[in-house]
């Protein structure tokens, strides 16, 4: 009798945990189709959000922005995007609790598609900033939904494995998708289109991509609102706890490192490609060739960030976290310093610099 009860309890526990995909244990109401759709969204996620910075030099060229003003404009656009994301990301999370994850997640890619459609139609920098808001809204929804959906779909015991899988897909998608897009302006130029149309068509290809992803997510993610949503503390109460925790020196150091690492990501994604694009056009390369070259170096940065993530995760478990942080920041600093000593950033030396930058970027984060 006892053995039968034990067997029944074991069977009940297995049923309560749902399907298993490799080492990932799903919740009971989640199908494999839902999981594969999440992987699909993760693959396109970071690439779709990063593309706005990658394509920035083409947009500035369409608007005839003087080269010495492009850095300031890029910084303004990034600042506007970050402010919008901070303001709305909590609202998107709350909205998904009421309307369902698939609506907000698919809406994120839809907004990105709208942003990329409007972006090359801007006739001045003010319109460019306004259109950037659509991209920012899409980024906010995308950023909050990936971890939220992952959290809903997986059993707590294997949550880390699912997050690791989606992170790897993020990186692979960024490398492969941006690596493909880097050739588009040159290809359109070879077809006889001028620089303006080549830039517009490149952005509109991204629009089509985002809309396709939006549809796939909407029709294949789990329908309905989450079965159970834990009660969340008010934002101001959470903020108060965060400030109180900062009295601990190690926590304060973690906060400071977070600010630095976020700035590091912004510098790499916003200014790295722009700097190389401007340098390439100054040296006489066509717009298509300059974009291909600059984006190629950016892809190299991200390609080295993928194994860097595995390396740093192994490393931080072996040493004190503060020491690991110091070493990671040192490597990031070496990467930036190396770039400053390269006489011509368009030579093969830049690949080593890009590799250092990729390792430093992921180590710092």
From TrEMBL:
InterPro entries, A to Z: MFS (IPR011701), MFS_dom (IPR020846), MFS_trans_sf (IPR036259)
Coiled coil (residue ranges): none
Entry's transmembrane regions: 35-60, 72-96, 103-122, 128-150, 162-181, 201-221, 252-277, 297-316, 323-342
SUPFAM superfamilies membership: MFS general substrate transporter
Pfam family, one: MFS_1
Gene Ontology molecular-function annotations: transmembrane transporter activity
Every Major facilitator superfamily (MFS) profile domain range: 34-365
Keywords per UniProt: Membrane, Transmembrane, Transmembrane helix
Descriptive protein name: Major facilitator superfamily (MFS) profile domain-containing protein
Higher taxonomy: unclassified sequences, metagenomes, ecological metagenomes
